[in-house]
## 1
Amino acid sequence: MVIVGFVTAAIWFYLATFRGDFWKLTERLKQARPQSDHSVTAVIPARDERELIGRAVASLHAQGTPTPLRVIVADDESTDGTGAASNADLVVTVPPRPPGWKGKLWAVASGIEADKTNPEFYLLTDADIEHVSPELVPSLLAQAERGFDLVSVMVQLQCESIGEQLLIPAFVFFFFKLYPPRWVNTGKGSAAAAGGCMLIRREMLTRIGGIASIRDALIDDCTLAARVKSCGGRVWLGISELPIRSIRPYGGVSGIRAMISRSAFAQLRHSSLLLLGTVAGMFFTYLASPILLVAHSAQPDLTRTVGFFTWLIGAALYIPTVRLYRAPVWTAFCLPLIGLFYLVATVESAVRYWTGRGGRWKGRIQDAA
C-alpha cells in the first residue's frame, strides 16, 4: 500500500505540474472580429433531428459574419422530416452509404460535395449545437487568421440534473487531460479537436484528401485534427468565452454511460493491452486515494496521509471544470466515484465491440469486431 500511495502521489504531481496546465482551462476563444471577409459554409449531418435542427440552423443564420453564412443540412435517411424542418439554405438527401464509411462522415462528405460555392472555410457542426452568440463564428475566423488551419471549441454540454452535474464536467476534464489544449495549440502534443464546432480551411481539407481520408474513423474530430497536423497544418483547441451549447438531453445516467461506451474502446484503438493499461491507470489515479484511507498498511499513518492529500489534489484540479459547468463544488470530491463510472463504461465499450454491438447510434452499429 505504501508503493501504491507513492505511485498515486507521483501521478497527481505530474498532472498538476507537467501536463500542460490542462486543468486551468486557460485556452479560451475570446470575442474578436476577423480582419478580412471570409466565406463560410456550415455543414450539419442530421438523422432524425426534427426537434433540434431548427434551433441549430437559426443560430447559424444569426451569426454576424461579414459574408452571410451558408448552411447545408445533410439529411441522413431521416424519417421524421428533419430536412423540411431545418430551414437550411440547402438540404442534401444523403445517398446510400458505401462500404467502409461511418454514417456521420458520409453525410458530411455528401454535404460538402453538394456545395458548389467553394467557400474559404467549412464549419463542421452538429444538429444539436446552438451557436448562441452571434459573434461565435466571427471569433473562430479571427482565431484562424492567427495561422491556424483547424479551429475548434468544446461546446458547453448539457449539465442540469444531478447525474449530469456529477458526470459531464468530468468528460471535459478527462478529454483535456488526454489532449492538453496548450500542447495541441503549440504543436507539442497530439492533435485534437472537439467535433461539435470545427472550422477548417477548405484548402487544408483538400490537402488532406477530404473527408474520405478519415471515412472509417469513429472518433472523427481527433482523427481529422491528426490528419491536418500530419499534412503540416496548425490546430487550435479550447473552450469558448462566447456561449455555444449542446441542446441534446442525455436521458439520465444511462444516457451518459451510452455516450461513453459508444467510442471509448475505439479511443484505445481496440487494443486489449491499452485497455489493461487504462484499468491500471484509472485505479492508481482515481480509485487508490479512498482505498489508501481505509486499507490496512505497515505504515497506516503514511498511507492515509498520502490518500487524503492525493484525493484533495485531484479535487482541487477538478474544481475549475466543475465551476465552468456551474455544478456544486462538492461534486469535485466525488472524482474517485466518477472515475470508477468512466472505467466501467470503458470496459463496457470493449465488451460491446467484442460482441458486435459497439458504436450504436440511432439504430446503427458503427464499431464492432
## 2
Amino acid sequence: MVDVKPVITKGLEGIYVSESAICKVDGTAGKLYYRGYSIEEIAEHSSFEEAAYLVLYGKLPTASELSAFDAALKESRALPKYVIGIIKGMVGKADTMDILRTALSAMSAEDKEVEDMSEAANLRKSARIISAIASIVATTGRLMEGKRYVKPNAKLSHAENLLYMLKGKKPRSDEARLLDVMMVLHVEHSTNASTFSTMVAGSTLSDIYSAVTAGISTLKGPLHGGADRASLRMMYSIGSPDNTENYINSALEGKQKIMGFGHRVYKTYDPRAKVMHKYLEQLSATGTEEVKNLISIAFRAENMMIEKLGKTRGIWPNVDFFSGPIYVQIGIPIDLFTPIFAASRAPGWCAHMIEYWRDNRLMRPLEYYNGDIDKEYVPMDAR
C-alpha cells in the first residue's frame, strides 16, 4: 500500500476548527465585530466592563446586570499574600508574562469552584480571572519599581483601578479613558493563537484557570502578544521623525520585518488601529513631548509603509503598531505591554472556552510521519 502524503496546512492557516457566535473578523473588508456589534461602536460607547459582559453573556447588559457584573469583578480584585509573595520572588528574575502565568495559576487555589465545570460556575470564575489578571499585572509593575502592593479601590472602574494599583494614586480621567479604550480593543479577536491554545487545553476538560494559563503562555511569544513592544522599540531606534524614511528604507532593503505591519487575517487596515489613530491624532497636540515625537515617527512610518507595501501587498498597520505611544502617554512601562494585553483578552479567552465546552470535543490533530520505520535496535555496547 502506497503511503500518500496528505495536504499539510502549516500554522492551520485557513482551517476552521469550530463555530462561534462571539466574534467576527472580516480580514478583507477590515471589520471586527463583538457579538455582532462593530468595534468602532463598542470603542466609542462602551466600557471594558460592558464589553467583557457582552462577549461572555452574548448580549449588552441592562443597568442592573452590568452593576452585578461590576460588583463581581470588584470582589475579586484583592490578591492573597502568598500570590503577592510569588510575584515579589519572581520580579527581576523572570519575564513579566512568566510572572503573570505563574501567579494566575496559583490563584486557582483560592477558587472553591475551580473543579465545577457547570457554565454558571465558569461564568463566575471568569469574572474572578479577569480581575485577578488585572491585579497581578498592576502589582507586578508596582513591585518592579521596588514599591509596596496597593490594595484595590472598589470605587474605581476596572481600568482606573488597574492604574491606581500600579501607580498608587487615582489616575486622571483622560489616562483612565485611554486605557479603557485600549482594553476594549483587545477584549476579543476570534481564534487567534492564544485563544486557540486556551481551547486546546480546555478541550481535555481541564479547568478554566488551566485553559487561560495556556493562553497567557501563548500570548508571550513575539509573533503574537509581544509585537507592540517590538514596534515601540523600533520607534525609539528611529529616534527622530526625520530619520524615519531612511530607517524604513534601510530595513526593507535588508529584508528586515517592520514590526506592527501586516496581519495573518487582515489584508487591509486593521479596524482597531483606525480607532487608535483617532486618539493619536489628539495626543499629537496634547501629549508629552516624548509621545508627540513617537507619534510623528509612527505617522511617517505608516504613510511610507502604506505607499510601499499596503496598496501593493496588503501589508497595513495593525493594532500593535500604534499601541506603544498610547501606553507611554498613560505611563505603562514597556515590560507591562503584553501583560496588559492579557488583562484585556481574558474575557475573550473565557468566553471561547465556555462556548466550546457546550459541544466539547478533544482537540487532537494528526501529523504526517516522515521518518524511518522498522529500524533494528542496536544494543548499548554495539553503538
## 3
Amino acid sequence: METLSVAGKPIELDSDGHLAHRADWTENVARELAVQEGISDLTPQHWAVINFMRSVFEKEGDAPSIRRLTKESGVDTKTLYQLFPKGPAKRAAKIAGLPKPKGCI
C-alpha cells in the first residue's frame, strides 16, 4: 500500500490513491493530495466542491456523480473540469478523502 506523508505523519492510500482510512482526512491532507493531482492551490471553488462531496457522502455513503455535482454544488460543468481536470468527480473525491465514486473508471 502506498503512503503519503503529511507533517511527518504517514497516511495510507488505497490502490487507487484514495485515503485508505477516511478518518485520516484533514485540510492539510487535502492540500497534499491536490498537489499530487497537479492542483497547486485549492481555491474557494475547490473547497465548495470538496465540502459538498463530503456532505453528500456523510448523508448517503457514496460520493456524488459528476452530473449531481454540476446540478447541486453550485459549480458548472466547465468550471468543474477547470478545477479538477481529467475526471472531476474522481479527482475531487480523492482530494476530499473519499473513495472513488461509483461509476467512475
## 4
Amino acid sequence: MTGSGPAAVIVLAAGEGTRMKSSTPKTLHQVCGRTMLGHSLMAAAELAPARLIVVVGHRADLVAAHARQQVPDAIIVVQEHLGGTGHAVRMVLESVGSIAGTVVVTYADTPLLRGQTLAGLVDERARTGAAAAILTARVPDPAGYGRILRGPSGSFAGIVEHADATPDQRAIDEVNSGMYCFDGDLLADAVKRVRTDNAQGEEYLTDAVSLLHADGHQVATVTCPDFEEIQGVNDLSQLAHATSVLNARLLGAAMRSGVWVHDPASTWIDVGVSLAAGARIGPGSQLEGATSVGPGATVGPGCLLRDTEVGAGATVLQSVCESAVIGEGAQVGPFAHLTQGTRIGPGERAVPATRPAGQ
C-alpha cells in the first residue's frame, strides 16, 4: 500500500444470519480456528487504519466483546435498526462524525478476503483520485449478484441488481462484491441522500455509489483476481466451503515452505498452527489452535493435536494430544491420549497403558 493507512475501515457485522440456523451469531462462527469476524478484522488491520470501526446489531454485546478481544481499540457502533448497508454507514458517520480522508467498507462474513486485496483497492482510489473505488470479481455463476455495467470505453457506468437486470445484463460475469473505498467527505454527503424506495425498504450503499457517479464523480473499479475472496458466508454449507478453501490455502503455503503434507485432502490445520520446514504431516491429521511441529518431526497418520508443542524429530502416531509438550525425538502412540499439561521428555516414549490379561 502506498502512503499512510486509510482514515477508517468500517467492518459491517450487524446481520442476524438466520440462514445459519445456529444460536451462535453468524460472524462468530469459526473458519480454520478463527472467527469470520476475526478474519475480517485481521484483513482490515493490515491496512493500518487510523480508526477501525465495527458496526454491530444482532447480539451486539457478544459481537462487540469479541471484536475488542481481537482489536482492543476498535470503535463499536450499534445499528439498532437493521436498515441496510447504507443505513449502517450513515449510523457510523452520525456516531463518530464525518471522516475526512479514505474510508474503506468491508464485511464480517467474508473470511477469505486478503488484506492485500483491500490495499489494492485503497491504492487504486488514491491513484485515480476517484470518489469511490469498487472491488469487483468475475465469477463462474453471477446469479444473485449486482452486475457491473461499463461504457464503450470500459469505464464504470453503473450497477444493476440481478432482479432488475435484462437478459443481456444477466449474462455479465463481473459482479459487485459490496466492498468499497470512498472519499470520506463525499461519502458523508451521499449516504444522507440514499432513499428506501426498494423492495426491502432499506438504505443500500450501492445507491451511494450511484449518486456519486450521477453527480459526475469518477468511480474506479478493482477486479479481485480470486473470486473466492469476495464470497460471503450465509449458511453452514458455505461455512464448510470457506473452511475448505482457507485450509487448502494454509496447506499450500506450508508445503511451499518445505513441510511434507502427505494427503492434503484429509489434513486440516488452523491459522495459528506453526509447521517447521522438514516436518511431516500424515493423512487424517487435524492440527488445531496454537499447535507447533518442529523440524524433522512426524505427526500422523490419524492424529488430533490441539495447542500442542511437538519437538524436533519427534513422532506422534494415531494419537490425541491436548495442550501437551512433546520433547525432541520423543515417540507418542499409537493410540495415546495426552491430556492438558502432559509433558513427554526428549527421547521418551508415551504409549497407552496395557491391562493384565483377564481384566
